[in-house]
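User: Show me sequence and structure for the first protein, then do the same for the second.

Assistant: Starting with the first protein.
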Amino acid sequence: MLKETMKKVEAAEDLAVKKVRDAEEEAVNIKANAKKKAAELIEKAGEDAKASVANKKEELKKQENAMADKAIKEAESEIKAFKDKASKNEKEAIDIVINALV
């Protein structure tokens, strides 16, 4: 009976050792997978950030171009108004000179 008990104890110890090894191996695998997923998440976050920056730059460029177009149109409108006024003043000046000569 003692031999049977000893065999059972040894078998239990062997099983315990195996379970500890299996648990350690599983822990190593879990840690490796966690590191891999963390690296993937960090890489994806970096890619997303780059894409976001690129989109924001494009959006700002469009706004800049729209503002520049608006400013050019306003300037062209003012130039036309000045030219029209100058043309009118030129006609008035010619009429004054002609009337003064007559």
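Switching to the second protein now.
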Amino acid sequence: MFGQWGTVVVAAMCMGVLGCAEAPRGEPNMAPASDSTRLLGQLDQHLAQLTANIDGIAKRLEELRRTPDSTDPVVRELRALDLMGWELHREQWRAQRDHLQFARQQLQRVNTTPGERPALLDQWARHELVFAPAMEEFRQQRLTLERQRLKVESQLIERALRGL
């Protein structure tokens, strides 16, 4: 039915399946050195990106602070909420940067002194117990600020639409 080429295709597929099934397996708990090197490279990229983002926020904050103050109390409130939001965002990114720096240090240490692996893992677990709730707190604070900002912004828009 398939002819000569059908037989060749089926044989090639069987050899491929058998070849994959018989592929050598490494130690289950051992990550290749290249994984650690690749992970450190990715951390470096994320650290550079966070640093650039933090610098960018600093510039935005400076521009916002240089903006002349308004006599309108609603506009002033909106500006104050913007400043608080950008400050909070910068704090969050700083905390994330510190977290990645800690992760990088832990990976470097485990590469140079593998015997410290249990202690480093324990340090990481304790770090995560502090870091994860801190990130959640940042998210909640930012959500609260965003809700306040939307409310104030809505007041400005409604006022403009009413012609006041």
